[in-house]
Amino acid sequence: MNRILRATSKNNEVRAFVAETKDLVNTAVKIHRTTPVASAALGRLLTAGAIMGIGLKGTKDLITISIKGDGPLGGVLVTTDSNGYVKGYVNNPEVDIPLKENGKLDVSSAIGKGTLTVIRDFGLKEPYIGQVELVSGEIADDLTYYYASSEQVPSVIALGVLVDIDLTIKESGGFMIQLLPGATEETIQTIEKNIYEIPSVTTMFTEGLKAEDILGRILNGLEPKVHEIIQPEYKCNCNRKKVEKAIIGIGKKDIQEMIDDGKTIETNCHFCDKTYNFTIDELKVILEKADK
């Protein structure tokens, strides 16, 4: 089961989110048929996206997180909403690179140098867009830097994905801690001490810890209070009408060229790999709509 705990410290100086996303990431891995390093990159960003999404207030608010690098993975993109629904993909799901010297998956080298972009769409005329250079390519560090530099919110983010020998996801999850206005130096020191003392996210899950246990560790001494438990889900909301709208968006010239080719076109959703076919007659109807 996928779960995210939303909590605060008793003194309301800290908010925390702890996520278990094993099933969610396994769904994505099955859809995209990713290699272990691609699974780790996608799983980390999906987990972060699910955490960030539940912080949205409006039911139609959306967050899109895009990582573009010069490494062989190419990039990772994730979209999430306030319901905990999240979806994503990697540009090159078949990338395969050597492990690090410590035997861990080398997500940083797979991504390379590049940028992290966060687009917050609140239904206004223009979305809010924040962008930073990647500081490590490990994703958690990059998001921590994004929050500090673009949103001025001191944060600690940890993400982990453990791939099993059969390429399924053995463990996946993460947490985000953020200081609230008025946080005292004592509270900050307590958090720093707790973070220094805990092992990696995947290690804690492998040891049998649940989200509640991890929350207790990262907010040890601060009396955490759980306000909500959300069940995030990998979910794509694509449909034929949306794909048709996307085809209209490419322009009349390109649609006419498709018609002139005289063949049914096949389109695939990047997020769920669902296939949509459009016949020549259907393309002609779409072309008429594009003229309006």
Could you provide a short overview of the structure?
The chain is of the alpha+beta class and 292 residues long.
Descriptive notes:
The protein is of the alpha+beta class. It has two domains: 3-234, Hsp33 domain; 240-291, HSP33 redox switch-like (CBS domain Like). 36% of the residues lie in helices and 29% in strands. It has ten helices and 13 strands. The protein has helices spanning 22-32, 36-53, 107-111, 140-150, 185-197, 201-206, 211-218, 240-249, 252-261, 280-291; strands at 3-8, 14-20, 62-69, 75-81, 85-90, 114-121, 128-133, 155-163, 169-179, 225-230, 233-234, 265-268, 275-278. The strands form three sheets. It has a six-stranded mixed beta sheet with strand order 7-6-3-4-5-11, covered by helices on one side. A five-stranded antiparallel beta sheet has the order 8-9-2-1-10, sandwiched between helices. Strands 12-13 form a two-stranded antiparallel ribbon. Strand 4 and strand 5 (85-90) form a beta hairpin. Helix 9 (252-261) packs antiparallel against helix 10. The longest helix has 18 residues, at 36-53. The N and C termini lie far apart (47 Å).
